[in-house]
Design brief:
Mean pLDDT: 83
Number of strands: 5
Low-confidence stretches: 242-246, 335-343
Distance between the termini: 90 Å
Strand content: 5-15%
Largest sheet: 3 strands, antiparallel
Length: 356
């Protein structure tokens, strides 16, 4: 073999040249220095899942498993000053996040996230990458007296915004997920008793008919008030809202409720099934002006209109309806929602279940 430097013949397998002493092992090529202003990449010591660090302008862009991933992260920033992305405020991140997320949720979901965003007003102008769990916790702590579901929405907004920011390499840690919430106390859901339902049936008013329609379908009040006449089919209706699983679903009408659907179908004077209703046709106003006065008049303890949905579900479980059928009717994507949230099982049903 020849020396790689002086080209003189040396014994095969020689590690060094006998004449000039040159190491015959091939030298490792050093990585090229990155051009000024394009950032830097370095490796952290120790055993780490993501040891490679990409940084620019003394700002850590992210941590990566492979060097090539870190390189790609910096290349995506080529020609862009950090101020365009890494200095995004809380409000900036929210606006960018909602552009994607709001396409997947309904009106109610949008409203709840907007309310949650308003709660974090003191953070709106702060750089998102500088915010930490204590910053978020301080805001949430001011609202601990609110319901668990409300403050959970606040945390949900934070975690989803942070996840988006991590994906966009604005920050590296989801500090929102460490926010503490008040302990959740699960309350027993209110349902209508058989005796209370009999009082409503005996009332005969149109307001009572609407309650019986909800009880016979398990529909949400908003779903019923927005139902089109053309979607009524005597024994079932086509309707729904809120989630993909809940939209445009087949909702059978229990036999005892069909006469009330037929009544409003006959008296409809517009495109909606309840267009002929003489009371208030806005769900929130119906609740205040027609529904609660009806319960008061019949000496029935006040329950929210949503209790009709809980009642329908509990009756269906008690009567042995197949879980997958009930899930379809209610429009739940996951049966655990049906079982854990909507089902109220009375003592007699529980005892009968173990007696066979």
């Amino acid at each position: 073999m020849q020396c790689r430097k002086c080209k003189k013949e040396i014994p095969d397998g020689s590690k060094f040249c006998l004449f000039c002493g040159t190491n015959q092992a091939a030298e490792k090529r050093k990585a090229l220095k990155r051009p000024n202003g394009t950032g830097t990449i370095y490796k952290l010591q120790g055993r780490r899942k993501r040891p490679w660090v990409a940084a620019k302008g003394k700002v850590v862009i992210g941590y990566y498993e492979r060097k090539t991933d870190a390189v790609e992260a910096l290349e995506r920033l080529s020609g862009k000053p950090l101020s365009e992305r890494y200095n995004m405020t809380f409000a900036d991140v929210f606006e960018a996040w909602k552009e994607e997320h709001y396409k997947e949720i309904g009106v109610k979901g949008v409203e709840s996230y907007n309310r949650a965003f308003d709660v974090f007003a003191p953070l709106h102008d702060k750089k998102f990458r500088d915010l930490r769990t204590p910053d978020f916790q301080a805001i949430v702590d001011r609202h601990m007296s609110k319901s668990h579901s409300t403050v959970s929405k606040y945390k949900q907004l934070l975690t989803q915004m942070a996840q988006w920011a991590i994906r966009e390499e604005i920050c590296t840690t989801n500090f929102g997920k460490f926010v503490r919430l008040p302990e959740s106390v699960k309350k027993e859901k209110e349902i209508f008793t058989d005796e209370e339902i009999e009082r409503i049936e005996a009332d005969g008013s149109e307001a009572a008919r609407i309650v019986l329609m909800l009880l016979s379908t398990g529909m949400r009040i908003g779903e019923l008030f927005s139902m089109r006449l053309e979607d009524y089919h005597e024994t079932y209706v086509i309707g729904g809202s809120k989630t993909e699983a809940g939209r445009n679903r087949v909702i059978p009408i229990r036999p005892e409720g069909r006469e009330h659907f037929a009544y409003f179908a006959r008296h409809a004077d517009g495109p909606l099934l309840l267009s002929g209703y003489v009371g208030d046709k806005v769900p929130a106003n119906y609740r205040k002006r027609d529904y609660y006065p009806l319960l008061d008049r019949l000496s029935i303890p006040r329950k929210s209109p949503h209790s009709t949905r809980h009642t329908y579900t509990s009756r269906a479980v008690k009567e042995g309806m197949a879980p997958e059928v009930l899930q379809k009717i209610l429009g739940h994507a996951d049966y655990s929602t049906t079982a854990n949230v909507y089902t109220h099982i009375d003592v007699d049903t529980l005892v009968k279940a173990v007696e066979g």
